[in-house]
Design goal:
By secondary structure, the protein is an alpha/beta fold. The protein is built from nine helices and ten strands. The protein has an eight-stranded parallel β-barrel with strand order 1-2-3-4-7-8-9-10, surrounded by four helices. Strands 5-6 form a two-stranded antiparallel sheet. α1 packs parallel to α9 and α7 packs parallel to α8. It starts with a strand and ends with a helix.
Length: about 270
C-alpha cells in the first residue's frame, strides 16, 4: 500500500512548491488536494463533519494551478485531485487543464472527481442539485472523449459539443477515481469502471461499499483514500481491504509546522513498513 499526503492547500499555509518538494523528499507517493471554489456565507448546507465549517474550505488554491506548480518541482509523486468538483466545472476547460498537468508532470496526474455536498456552492455555478449526478456522469464521459479522440464530440442532455480538436492530450489516460459514499457513488464507479476515493470511514462501511463495487464490476476496484488518520492499526485494516493508496491528512498550517509534521508522518510510515 502506498502512502501519500492529503491536504487543503490554502493561502495561509505551506506553499505548493515547498509542500510538493517536501512530500517527494520524504518518500511519500502522492499529493492529494481538495477543491472548493468558494463557500457562500448563508451556511444553508450543514458541514458533513459536524459543527462549524473549517475556514480551509474557502481558502483553497485552485487545484490545477497547485498541481502544475507541484509538477514543476517533482519527478515521482502522483498529483491527485481529491476531489475536483466537476459538477461546478466546464468540461472542455477542465479536460485541457487536467491534460496539461499530466503532460507537464510526465503522466503523473490522477483525476479524482465528485458531485459535492454544498448545495449553495454548486447552485452559484448554475448547477441544479437534483440533476448533479447525471451532470457528473456526462462531464466524465465528455472529458474522456476529449482526452482520447481527435476530433472529439459528445452529445448528452447537459454536455453537447460537435466534433472539435482539443490539445494537449494526456501522456496517459489519467486514472479516474470517484468520491462519495452512497448507492449512487457505487453505481457511478461501476458505470465508468473507475476507482473509488473514500474518506476514512469506519471499516464496516468501507468493506460494504467495496464489496458492492467488486460485485458490480466483476473485478477488483482501485481504492484510494483522502484524509487518512495517522494510525498504524487503521492502515493495516484498510491495507487488508485492498486499498492501493492512502493519503495521510496534513493540517493546513504554515511551512515550518507542515515540515515538522511530515517528518513525523514519514517516521511512522517507515516504522510501519518495518
Amino acid at each position: 500500500m502506498k502512502f501519500g499526503i492529503s491536504t487543503f492547500v490554502t493561502d495561509d499555509g505551506i506553499d505548493p512548491v515547498s509542500l510538493a518538494t517536501a512530500i517527494e523528499d520524504r518518500g511519500f507517493d502522492a499529493l492529494v488536494i481538495a477543491e472548493h471554489t468558494h463557500i457562500p456565507a448563508s451556511r444553508e448546507s450543514a458541514y458533513p463533519g459536524g459543527g462549524e465549517l473549517p475556514d480551509v474550505y474557502y481558502k483553497t488554491l485552485d487545484p490545477f494551478v497547485t498541481l502544475a506548480a507541484a509538477a514543476a518541482v517533482t519527478s515521482r509523486i502522483e498529483l491527485f485531485t481529491g476531489i475536483a468538483l466537476l459538477i461546478q466545472r466546464d468540461p472542455i476547460v477542465t479536460a485541457k487543464e487536467a491534460a496539461s498537468v499530466d503532460l507537464i508532470s510526465g503522466g503523473r496526474f490522477v483525476f479524482g472527481v465528485g458531485a459535492g455536498w454544498n448545495i449553495e456552492e454548486l447552485r452559484n455555478h448554475g448547477t441544479d442539485s437534483k440533476t448533479r449526478g447525471a451532470l457528473l456522469d456526462e462531464r466524465i464521459e465528455a472529458i474522456k472523449a476529449l482526452w482520447t479522440n481527435e476530433p472529439a464530440e459528445y452529445h448528452g442532455r447537459f454536455v453537447d459539443f460537435d466534433a472539435s480538436y482539443s490539445r494537449p492530450k494526456p501522456v496517459r489516460q489519467p486514472p479516474i477515481y470517484i468520491g462519495g459514499n452512497s448507492d449512487a457513488t457505487v453505481k457511478r464507479v461501476i458505470r465508468h469502471d473507475a476507482g473509488w476515493i473514500s474518506n476514512p470511514f469506519p471499516v464496516d462501511v468501507l468493506s460494504s461499499r467495496i464489496q458492492q463495487m467488486r460485485e458490480g464490476l466483476g473485478h477488483d476496484v482501485p481504492l484510494a483514500m483522502f484524509g487518512t488518520p495517522v494510525d498504524a492499526d487503521y492502515w493495516r485494516t484498510v491495507d487488508d481491504l485492498g486499498f492501493g493508496q492512502v493519503a495521510l491528512l496534513l493540517p493546513s498550517v504554515p511551512r515550518d509546522e507542515s515540515l515538522r509534521l511530515l517528518d513525523e508522518y514519514a517516521a511512522k510510515v517507515a516504522q510501519y513498513r518495518g
